[in-house]
Amino acid sequence: MLRYLTAGESHGKALIAILEGMPAGLKLDTKLIDKELKRRQQGYGRGKRMEIESDKVEILSGIRKGVTIGSPIAVAIKNKDFKIDKLGSVVCPRPGHADLAGMIKYATIDARDILERSSARETAARVAIGAVCKIFLSEFKIVVFSHTKYIGDIEADVEELSLKTIKQKISNSCLNCADRSSESLMKHRIDQAKKSGDTLGGGFEVIGLNIMPGLGSHVHYDRKIDARLALELMSIQAIKGVEFGVGFLGTQLPGSEFHDEIILKGKVLTRRTNNAGGIEGGITNGEPLRVSCAMKPIATLMNPLLSVDMRTGKVKKASTERSDVCALPAASVVAENVSAFVLAQAILEKFGGDSMKEIKRRM
Ligand code: EPS
């Protein structure tokens, strides 16, 4: 069973992860992993940390001459900004961050012990292992990408665009957005938020192409692939909602407009629509995967909300930490990569195989 573990703190020595269960015989080009790591660092509205780090992966195990050998793949991303032991205490927990809940849980009045791990920096490790999974998926022509649907109150007008067009249009967008006119409005909103010491969230969609039917299963709740995707996506920092296909709004439609009629194109079974987002009964149905996430505005405000000083009990403004104004494009890169992990896991579950050769033969 493909599985992974991550470790590491935002200002610790490094972010690390171990991916166990990847078959032998997969060529790992670290440039492709570094490309995903770089994408995660980008996006209009990202904070100053992104000027310090230039995340590169070090593969510490599981390969020989650049090819997997079936053993656990350990990766590390070093922190240039390694200063965890020198950083001061954080005693006024930030509303919306893990600070106060973490302080209560771990019985500390210093949120630094919490935020070092709760920070979105951790997602660099998840992107590194997800990028390995994207390389695995590319062996089967499966492509996973994402695009920005809205930032704050500015929505991208992409309804009429085909998936192919969306994929083309996002290529040189600093907000991973397929609609140029709303992109400039989004940038303006981000500038406004920055000026007033505020932050922005938004929504994005992950799309998967060429995914074969039959991944996941209806037979048990924890084998449903939408449930497994939801877990991986919900666990990304700041994600407050996950929806598949036409999502929450779509559920207001009557069944006759919601469900995707089954049609024949020549000899090929296909659908007239894809409101389900490529999954029915917890199983992929051969249509493109479409899953959207809602991201709350970043919790650290440079114009902070009220909090309480945990040393004195006095009401005070929350602490401020260097932070992003908007990290939506970064979150969507993380979402692509954790989705790639779930798809790779489901493929290995269905087709099994200890080597790429064996899997391809079975497929
Ligand atoms: C981030 C690293 C962090 C933050 C940010 C994103 O680095 P630093 O704390 O040194 O600035 O910039 O994380 C948050 C804003 C947060 O609240 O988690 C990253 O690598 O994505």
Describe this structure in words.
This protein is an alpha+beta fold and 363 residues long. The protein has one domain (3-362): 4-Layer Sandwich (Chorismate synthase, AroC fold). Helices cover 33% and strands 20% of the residues. It contains twelve helices and 17 strands. The strands form six sheets. It has a five-stranded antiparallel sheet with strand order 8-7-9-15-10. A four-stranded antiparallel sheet has the order 1-2-6-3, with helices on one face. The protein starts with a strand and ends with a helix. The mean pLDDT is 97. Bound molecules: ligand EPS. The site of ligand EPS has 17 residues, from loops.
Average pLDDT, rounded to a whole number, is 97
Percent of residues in helices comes to 25-40%
CATH topology: Chorismate synthase, AroC fold
SSE order, one letter for each helix or strand: EEHHEEEEHHHEEHHEHEHHEEEEEEEHH
Q: What form results from the Cα inertia axes?
A: globular
Q: What is the CATH C level class, in words?
A: Alpha Beta
The count of β-strands is 17
CATH homologous superfamily descriptor: Chorismate synthase AroC
Please give the largest β-sheet: 5 strands, antiparallel
Counting helices, strands and paired strands, the structural category is alpha+beta
Kindly give the count of domains. Answer: 1
